[in-house]
Amino acid sequence: MKALLIEDDRFFAKFYSSKLKEHNIETETAVDGEEGLLKMKTWSPDIVLLDLIMPKKDGFFVLKERQGNRKLIKIPVIVFSTLGQEKDIETVQQLGANDYVNKSFFNFDLVMAKIIRLTNKL
Amino acid sequence: MSVINLSSYKKLYLQTAKEYCDSLLKNCHKILQNLKDKDALENIYIRAHSLKSQSQVMGYSKIEELSGMIEKTAKKFLDEKKSVPEDLMQAIQKSAEEIKIALRNIEGEK
Q1: How is domain A2-117 classified at the CATH fold level?
Q2: d(CA B68, CA B53)
Q3: Residue B73 and residue A99: Cα distance in Å, rounded?
Q4: Min distance A96 CA to chain B CA atoms (Å)
Q5: β-strands A47-51, A2-6: how paired?
Q6: Interchain contact A108–B (C-beta under 8 A)
Q7: Does residue B28 sit within a domain?
Q8: Cβ of B56 and A104 within 8 Å?
Q9: pLDDT tens by residue, A14-64
């Protein structure tokens, strides 16, 4: 099982990548949407955890690119939101995100449940 | 639900939060030199957003509130494609300085 974490914030990246690894999930990280898209294409993860607000290319850009790519659209994406991003959630759902989670709740059990549901793995 | 020991994340929080706060101050300074600097405003928006999110996790509500206000203001002016007025920019800078002091206080806690 391979998970790609696209997150510019080292604080959240460390928490979520260490938790994924604890669950024996092979994890790669990308610090912005540009690097994230490249790793989605070359590393072929089973799932992507995607932050929205990032430098260079943001999460919205990644979702738009994914929508137009037959290979990438097959990779499920869970969007990381935070407080006050309710409007953004509507947008990412329209852009084809499979699910979302408030990253600030640090509720990894919920993240795992969503990963299992979307990948049918583990 | 698993219980997370947040104290183990305090060091990383302080490290990244100070970095983001310095970036806020640096970009405030840039905008006060040139009110039309859109890249600096974009950086303020991204960094204030990060600071707000991680402060929410750690329970530092004052920093969460201040950075949330900065984020919201920057987003409004970015969406409207307008420059932030100088007096408002000075208020943002003042909030960033308050965040810096709050971070120092957290660092000084035992």
Answers
A1: Rossmann fold (3.40.50)
A2: 9
A3: 28
A4: 23
A5: parallel
A6: yes
A7: yes
A8: yes
A9: 999 999 999 999 999 999 999 999 999 999 999 999 999 998 899 999 999
Are A109 and B57 an interchain contact pair (Cβ–Cβ within 8 Å)?
A: no
Q: What pLDDT is recorded for position A87? A: 84
Give the alpha-carbon dihedral of B7, B12, B15, B17, to 10 degrees. -80
Model ipTM? 0.83
Structural domain count of chain B: 1
Residues in chain A closer than 8 A to B23 (CB atoms): none
pLDDT tens string B22-78: 999 999 999 999 999 999 999 999 999 999 999 999 999 999 999 999 999 999 999
CATH number at B39 reads 1.20.120.160
**Domain span at residue B104?**
12-108
Half-sphere exposure for A21 (CA within 13 Å, toward CB): 10
